[in-house]
Amino acid sequence: MTKSSNMIRLILENCIGCGTCVEMCPENAIPDSLIGFISSLARINEENCDCCGECIQVCAHDAIKICEREIG
């Protein structure tokens, strides 16, 4: 897996917990706890995420964004 200089972020206030992103993620980087239950602690696992963007493409609620990784 090649690490990107970008990262994926959840916008929890837009997430409805449908689970489409969880099912689509090829790296299993999105926690199952998002399905039907919104947790303020839910985050994408940056160790697993390769920023492929598949989750962004399937999210109909604009709840996932790509942004630059802060280094330092």
What is the level-2 CATH architecture name? 2-Layer Sandwich
Structural class per helix/strand content? alpha+beta
The H-and-E topology, N to C, reads as EHHE
Low-confidence stretches: none
Classify the helix fraction into a percent range.
10-25%
- What is the total tally of β strands? 2
Quote the average pLDDT.
82
CATH topology: Alpha-Beta Plaits
Q: How much strand content do the residues show? A: 5-15%
As laid out across the biggest beta sheet, the strand order is: 1-2
How large, in whole angstroms, is the Cα Rg?
11 Å
* CATH classification class: Alpha Beta
Q: How widely separated are the two ends?
A: 22 Å
Q: How would the global form be characterised? A: globular
Task: Pick out its properties.
Alpha-Beta Plaits; alpha+beta; 2 helices; two-stranded antiparallel ribbon; 72 residues
Written description of the protein model:
By secondary structure, the chain is of the alpha+beta class. The protein has a single domain, classed as 2-Layer Sandwich (Alpha-Beta Plaits). It is 14% helix and 14% strand. It is built from two helices and two strands. The chain has helices at residues 20-24, 54-58, and strands at 6-10, 64-68. The protein has a two-stranded antiparallel ribbon. The model has no long low-confidence stretch (mean pLDDT 82).
Can you lay out the helices and strands and say which pair or pack?
Layout: E1 6-10, H1 20-24, H2 54-58, E2 64-68
Antiparallel strand pairs: 1-2
